[in-house]
Amino acid sequence: MHLAWLRPRRSLAGRLALAVTGAVTAALVLAAALSVWREVDRYAADKQAALEAVAQVFAHGGARATAANDEAAAAASLRAIGNVPSIVYGAIERPDGSVLAEQGIGLRLTQDAALDGADLSLLHLFATQSLRATAPILENGRPVGRVVLIGETDDIRDHVWAAGQNAALAALLAVAIGIGVSFYLQRSVTRPLGALTRTMEAVRLRHDYTQRAPVESDDEVGALARTLNDLLSAVNERDHRLAAHSAHLEAEVQARTADLREAKQAADAANAAKSTFLATMSHEIRTPMNGVLVMAELLASADLPVRQRRYAEVIARSGRSLLAIINDILDFAKVEAGKLDLEHVPVCPAEIADTVVTLFAERARAAGLDLAADIAPEVPQAILGDPVRLGQVVSNFVSNALKFTEAGHVSVRMALDAGDGCLVIAVADTGIGIPQDKLATIFSAFSQADQSTTRRFGGTGLGLSIAQQIIAAMGGTVAVESRVGAGSTFSARIPVTVAEPARPILRHGTVPAAIVLDTAGPATRVALAASLSAAGFAPVAADRGAAPAHWVLDAAALVAAGRRPDRAGRVLVLVGAGDNAADQALRSGLADAVLRWPVIQAEWRPLLAALAAGDPFTASAAVAVATDLMPQFSGARVLVADDSAVNREVALEALARCGVTDVVTVEDGAAAVAAAGAQRFDLILMDGSMPVLDGFAAARTIRQREAATDRRTPIVALTAHVLGEAAEAAEAAGMNGTLLKPFTLRQLADLLQAHVPSLRDAAREAAAGSEEARAALPTGASPGAAPQASPDGDLLDAEVLDGLLGLGDGAFLDRVLDLYRAQGPVALATLRSALAVSDQPAIARAAHSLKSMSANIGARALVARLRAIEDAARNAACAEPQEACDGLETLLAVTIRDLEGRTRAQAVAA
């Protein structure tokens, strides 16, 4: 330890001794320097003063000689300089600076700094070793010259050396005292610290927490030692407790392990029970769904009126959505794990909105609410997403809005955020609203505003929570804004990938921009106004003045008025379900087109496009469910085994649509085994869960019997089980595949194609295709005949006629044609009279009236001629002569004749 101060990087004592010694040495060096400096300064000042005194004496003695300019006398006065040992040079100078007399070592050195000024610094004195002094020579008070003396300072080194020796002695003494002080500090400070360090080192090496550090003082070091001792005591006590706990730890671990084992067994049992329950519920739910979906698909593909076909399509589409939701609910394991599988297929947002408003239209009508959807023009035609989940979100929002709205309206709006490209879906209502303190929990499961809400309006509070989870899985967010008594707005923001860009509709420059919206429903009116404004129209008030304008108004109001609005352009009427006012408006020529409530984009956009382009309106016709021509298997024999009479009926009808009429049905597995042994089948559809013998056991029995023969009949599991062991049992039973209930006609056809392709009836399908081709020919034409020319080119619009033929019963087109046959000539006569007097407004009205009724009947050529007359008359530039009506009369007669031929051909075909 006594050498520790030699290792300053490791020893506190060494660093302390070095610091003390260094500080003392630095102070002494500075003090010695100051002392030497002061000694030199004092020596120089004394030397200078003495030299100046001698100069004064010589100046007084040589005053007379200098005044007389006597060089000899002046030199004699300077000879006494030799008696002064320190003076090496003396001179008497005239006033002009010239030397009168001098005495000494010869010429002075001009570079000698001491001779040129009064600089008495230590460096200059050491360099020159001389001093210079001057004194003026006065005669009777008048300066007559001066005395210059230079003295040597060669003894300055002795003075500096003596001062340095004194300073060095003082420094050595001070360093000795500093070292003594540092040693004292080592003993009083570092020794207790060293003892503390040795104690801690012993604890570290031996893990002996009974060691204690000595406490030698009450200063900070002593406090540190006491704190360390307390810490060691706490650690020692902890070790004792850990040792005591370790003694019982093994027994405790065994007890906990037994508890965990029991809990795991209970959880496994609960999970098995849940899986069994879900598998059972899957079968029980999907079995009736099979009948609903297949029959709805058959109904939608049948020959139905347009409105009924649309209802069937909604049933089928909604059933498929419900089935998809049920599938995800039954897949409970994924839901519990927080996983939600989403499709990424092209989805039409407008179609989603159409489906939702159509589904909830009757509910809104019964509640006296207006329901409308507003699709912004920038919304893409198709995005990549999950149509079922997106429809579920919008349905939940709309259902929630209708539930809590007693008066007013519910509106659905879809738009694209220009900033981030997200699809924004907002559902606004005029309902009861939500208190601000309840908004934070509105998306929580099983949560509603309060218990009275549940009792009054019903519901479980799950819809909004499910919607939030779906939107979150899509990477989006949900939000709600509400005010009590004013209504709520639920919105969702979803990042989307555009699959097909938007196709906005823009008004043609020649089409008038003004349009009057006079509908009762506020939400419908706002949605139509937004769509029209985006297309370039300008919605105006009904009392806006006399300028021409298009009109959109309620059919009942128009029929009650009994006339078209004044100076009206094209008139569209809005009609609700079951209201025949639209038919009356069309027959009487009051309206040009019909728009059904609730307004759906599939019907509104074609009408808006025709209105914007000035084209004739086509008859509204819903698009049938797109079904390909089903392949036919008329030679196939199929065995259907199912214990449900509904499922057997569904299978019979579905197989019949695929041409299979030789079908045997049985109610249980034992009967299926017997039937399969009694006759040969090309395909067996076997339900999994049946009485007496389930389908999987029946399949194994059939396979065992077939093992002795070369025959192997395809067996397909027709099952509603999608969870549990039953889903994998089909493969274990030797079945060839699985057809999940509910199935579609296309899935059944694909199944038949996969297992009995050789029985596909190509000749029958070719015949069916030929029949469709013949049906597509113009009325009265044979497959090989050339189409007959009409007087004015393309006389009739086949699409409009097909739509009229699909509306109502077979006599509908006859009734429309009778009205046209009666009113067409009257309208033409009115036009002839207006042309005779060149009344431009009257010409425009008459031409428009005949054009509108001709467009509704599909008279394309006549519409084109009348549109030109109407447009010219509206611009006050119609110059057609009265004789122009002769050509129109001929064209009207040919049109009516061709229409009569189409109706007769339709009656014969019926």
Describe this structure in words.
- 54% of the residues lie in helices and 15% in strands.
- With 910 residues, the chain is of the alpha/beta class.
- The strands form five sheets. A five-stranded mixed β-sheet has the order 6-8-9-11-10. A five-stranded parallel β-sheet has the order 14-13-15-16-17, sandwiched between helices.
- Helix 15 links the parallel strand 13 and strand 14.
- Helix 8 packs across helix 12, helix 10 (349-359) runs parallel beside helix 12 and helix 27 (840-857) packs antiparallel against helix 28.
- Mean pLDDT is 77; it is low at 1-6, 107-117, 331-335, 451-460, 620-628 and 762-793.
Secondary structure: elements and pairs:
Layout: H1 12-61, H2 63-68, H3 71-78, E1 87-93, E2 99-104, H4 113-116, H5 122-128, E3 130-139, E4 142-152, H6 156-206, H7 220-300, H8 306-330, H9 332-336, E5 345-347, H10 349-359, H11 361-366, E6 370-375, E7 382-385, H12 387-403, E8 409-416, E9 422-429, H13 451-457, H14 463-473, E10 477-483, E11 487-495, E12 497-500, E13 514-518, H15 522-535, E14 538-540, E15 549-554, H16 555-561, E16 568-575, H17 581-587, E17 593-596, H18 601-613, E18 637-641, H19 645-657, E19 662-666, H20 669-678, E20 683-686, H21 695-706, E21 715-719, H22 726-732, E22 737-740, H23 745-755, H24 762-776, H25 798-806, H26 812-837, H27 840-857, H28 860-874, H29 884-909
Parallel strand pairs: 6-8, 13-14, 13-15, 15-16, 16-17, 18-19, 18-20, 20-21, 21-22
Antiparallel strand pairs: 1-2, 1-4, 3-4, 5-7, 7-12, 8-9, 9-11, 10-11
Helix pairs in contact: 1-6, 7-8, 7-19, 8-12, 10-12, 12-14, 16-17, 20-21, 26-27, 26-29, 27-28
